[in-house]
Amino acid sequence: MYIKEIPTADDLLNNNNYITMFWNDVFEMAHKEKASDIHIEPNEPDMGSLRVRFRVHGDLFDFETINDPKNIRSYLTEFGKICSIDLSERMRRQDKSIYLNKTNSRYRVSMVPATSYDPESYVLRVISLGDMPSLKNCKFSKEAEQSIFSFTRQSQGLFLVTGATGSGKTSTLHAILMAVKGREKRKILSLEDPIERRLPGVRQQEISPIYTWEEGLRSFMRQDPNIILVGEIRDEESAKLTVDLANTGHLVFSTMHTNNVIETYQRLQNFHVDKLDIIKSLKFCSAQRLVQTLCEHCKIKDEATGYYRKGIGCDECKGKIPGISGMRPILEYSLGMSDEDYLEYEKTGRVPVVTTLDQEMKNLIKEGVVDMENAFLYGDGTL
Q1: How far apart are CA 195 and CA 355, in angstroms?
Q2: pLDDT (tens digit per residue) in 193-204
Q3: Computed from CA positions of residues 355, 359, 365, 367, in that sequence, does the dihedral angle turn out positive or negative?
Q4: Which of 50, 79, 110, 180 would staple 66 via disulfide (CB 3.0–4.6 Å)?
Q5: Residues 287, 162: contact at Cβ < 8 Å?
Q6: Rounded CA Rg of the chain
């Protein structure tokens, strides 16, 4: 019996028609510009335009706008096929993952449903597979890196990294997993939605309508793991199961969508996790952000303040944002709480933190790594 092969995204992009050639150019240019995200944004049918934007170093830039009302639907249909979208279900949200050999990148596809005004739109997160994440490449402060290394050498406990979408939480956890001492002698399981990159030595499971977060976490308990990565704590059941895993002899890593360390403790309480279980399990709690870093070759020193600001651009940093060389994370983090710390937290709402986002930002400004104009982002603007 002959079984027809399903064409890959690379196969579909090799079709020789002007619409497919346009999408091929989009992927190639996004790769060239080192974009972290691709945004496909159709306007309402009466306007008949389709805008494509790239996110580079945290900012969005226009790549091209198509003004072709009669063919906007054809562009979207072709793009949906490339991204493995079920085109018969345009009115519901869909999340997919595709791989392109030509860019050696995986793309996490999120389709926002069509409305009565606008067609469906897409956002693609770009995951370059050329380099495996490492703690060294993350460029955390020395103190934060040492604290993370210390945690990876423990036998049990919960490591939480929080922050907004696109703040690098998953990449941070992947880098930490690669740094775990003696990882080749330990069983490591990962539950993700979706799987962004393949990690050597890690058994990775992907969430689906059948294989839910709760089902995945419960199945992990029967597989004798040492280390577990839970892609996200998103509700009461996943919170309680994750904390239980951390309190029963497992080293657990996970993420949450909160703004700071205090909000993370509050969210766990809102999920009705027992406070004693929180104290016992949560050994490292952090809030992460990505900040733009100055180009070392053209940054300008402000003589009045002694701090550096963005230059006009040079051959080393040429691209979408002149004077910016890339992004790096900053962390606000706590190394857990004692019983006394938790009582103080319940009375005053304060959590003992090693450093704050404001302090991290100020340190980078003083070191000449970040533009001094960023002083106001996570604090009062003073240095």
Answers
A1: 31
A2: 888 888 999 999
A3: negative
A4: 50
A5: yes
A6: 23
